[in-house]
Each structure stands twice: as structure tokens, then as C-alpha cells.
Amino acid sequence: MAQSAKAKLPATYADLIKVPDNLVAELIGGELFASPRPAVPHAVAASELTVSLGGPFGRGSGGGPGGWRILYEPELHFAADVLVPDLAGWRLTRMPQAPKTAAIELPPDWICEIVSPSTGRIDRIRKMPVYARVGVQHAWLIDPLQRSLEVYRLESSHWMLVGAYENDALVRAEPFDAVELDLLPLWGEERAK
């Protein structure tokens, strides 16, 4: 009589916390994903985007509208899924105070994933459907190697591409279209004056 293969148990949060600190760990659909810390182009894009959005939309500086709480790499818990987007933003009307916990259960209004060769498939195929399922309204995918920004809006539980930009574009991308965003700093470059 042949012995049947054991069914693989879904990964748990206990499995996630065992992952070394030099990796970003996520649970998606019962599967544990551990990705290396990002390379420098990824870090540059995340840092520059934090500055570009955090000032005008977080603090309302430079004449920006304010009204947002933008966080770098928050740990998001959606039932059994644990995701860590590169950036996430909540309208202050939904999250007036930052929680004092390690993880956030309230879905953000906007997420940004900075894709890399090692994470692009996970970001697009595994994480985007979870973000749609929990009702995140806007998603950005930034690829610093391809020098591109894709802007998505949730429409009837499906992602709709509302804009794609590249290289040295100056863009007004929802939900942050009140302020023009220069893509060049995301690639580590400065616009000639």
C-alpha cells in the first residue's frame, strides 16, 4: 500500500516571527514569503517618495493639502494574511491617530509596492488581490530599474490601471493628484535647473 503524502500545513504568524531580521517576511494565502532587504535603487525610490508625499500630504507643508498618514513598511494584518507594503497611506479621517501596536488591521486607502526582480511577481500576483479584497482604494507599483510608475484604482473589487508613467515625467497621480510628482528623484536623479 502506497503511503500518501502529508498535506502541508499553512504557515502561521509563529513561522513568520522566526524569519531572520535581515529578511522581509509576509504571509499570503497560508504561504510564508521571505524576501531580502531591498537594494539601493529600491531604497532610493522609497525614501524619495516618502519625502515627496509625506511633506505635502502628511504635514501639509509646501502648500500641500495634508490629510494623510503615510507609513514606511507597516505590518498589515488582514485575517490570516500579513503583508508589508513599501509604503501605505491612510486618510486622517479614517486613522486620526497612529496605533501603538506593531501591526495595523485597518486597511490603508493607498499602498505603494516598489517592485524588484525578486518581489515583482509576489507584489503583482499574490499581494494585489489581497489589497483589492480588503478594499484598498489605490495602489502604485514603482519599478526603479524600469523607471516606471503604474497607478491603479479599485473599481468593483478589480484593479483598473488609471495611469502609467516613466523616466522623467512630471505626474499628478491619484490619490495624490493635488501636487505634481517629479519621477526623476525616484531614480536617484535631479532635474536640470
Task: Describe what this molecule looks like in 3D.
The protein is an alpha+beta fold and 193 residues long. The protein has one domain (40-187): tt1808, chain A (Alpha-Beta Complex), CATH 3.90.1570. The chain contains three helices and 13 strands; from the N terminus they run αββαββββββαβββββ. The strands form four sheets. The chain has a six-stranded mixed β-sheet, with helices on both faces. α3 (120-134) links the parallel β8 and β9. The protein is globular and about 60 Å long. The termini are far apart. The relative contact order is 0.14.
Q: Brief description of this entry?
A:
20% of the residues lie in helices and 33% in strands.
What's the number of helices?
3
Quaternary structure classification: single chain
Strand-pairing-aware structural class: alpha+beta
What is the total domain count?
1
**CATH first level: which class?**
Alpha Beta
Give, in spatial order, the strands making up the sheet with the most strands: 3-6-8-9-10-11
Annotation, overall tally of beta strands:
13
CATH architectural type: Alpha-Beta Complex
CATH topology: tt1808, chain A
User: What is the beta-strand fraction?
Assistant: 25-35%
**What is the overall silhouette?**
globular
Low-confidence stretches: none
The largest sheet is: 6 strands, mixed
The H-and-E topology, N to C, reads as HEEHEEEEEEHEEEEE
What fraction, in percent, of the residue positions are helical?
10-25%
Task: Give the averaged pLDDT, no decimals.
Answer: 92
What's the end-to-end separation, in Å?
77 Å
